[in-house]
## 1
Amino acid sequence: MKINGPGRVPGPNPYQQTARYEKEAVRKQQKKDEVQISPEAKSMLQSEEAQPVSREQRIQQLKEQVQSGTYHVSSEKIAEKLIQYWRNQL
């Protein structure tokens, strides 16, 4: 027979710990994913919807310039973008 000294508290019951873990698992399953769209993103979406014609016109202009050979790309802009790209990669 084992006798514990006065004031000694036995350890936690492993069955109670299992029940607690099961409750936490149920709570985790009940959580749902949520998506919040910022006001800035909403305004961007609305502005894109309001101006689809101008974008299509711009694309058509670019296509015509490329086909006619008058489309010019600035080498400085290309170099700047390449430098930015490689700086972000390192």
## 2
Amino acid sequence: MHFYDRIESADVIFKVEKSDNTDNKICEIRLAVPGNDLFSKKQGRTFEEDVVETIAALEPQLKRIKKDRAVPEYQPEINPDLIDTF
């Protein structure tokens, strides 16, 4: 999927937390975008599940940034007085 053209870099970190609990795998993703870094961290039983959940948590952040930073479409100003002159 394509969400945002201005991602400069991504840091992905996998950790295993020392625990008796089976939900001890951690995935962190930090996306560097102009102005802010986006971050998400998920913990679960497998790294595969964590990656999917972490990306799913980043998607709305990327969509929000894309919407907030969108360049408005150029709308030329039309002077109604000039319309009849042509």
## 3
Amino acid sequence: MTTRFKPNVVFEPELVDHFAAGAAIVVTCKETLTRKESIHYGRWTVRLVFASGDTRQLVTQRDFNNPRVFRTLNGIASLLAAAGCTQLAIPFAKGAEATNTRGG
């Protein structure tokens, strides 16, 4: 069995490790935030940006040809908190990006 490896992708455990080592987490809003009842919905993707300028897209292990998409504000906030962010930068408008770094 062969492994289909793509060098420009990252899985969640690696994202946490790279963030701890100094990479930035960039969140991109793909669908403007809306509210239904008490839940905020939207669509966000995540990528790592290294000091060298290299980037890696967060994907799932089931399908690493497509980016992982978060559909609730709680979902993206949970990922960032689990990664070690002490403050969350999450864009609410389609096309906007926000950068999360260690210590800020």
## 4
Amino acid sequence: MLGRTYDANDRSSAHLHTLLIAEEKARNREISRVRIQVEYAISGVKRYRIVKDTLRNWNKGFRDQVMETCCGLHNF
């Protein structure tokens, strides 16, 4: 629980603080692992120039088709 303050003289709260820090670190590591995978996937899809550049085609659903196609090619 972030933002909590603990009394340094109280041993039980100091121990609790250590446990919370360990739990927070584990959660942050898990979030970081997922974030890195998502960033790799986004960078892989952005290799296709049509995704990076501004689309001038205003046909309904075209942008979705472009993204689906590029994601499919990336996963291929």
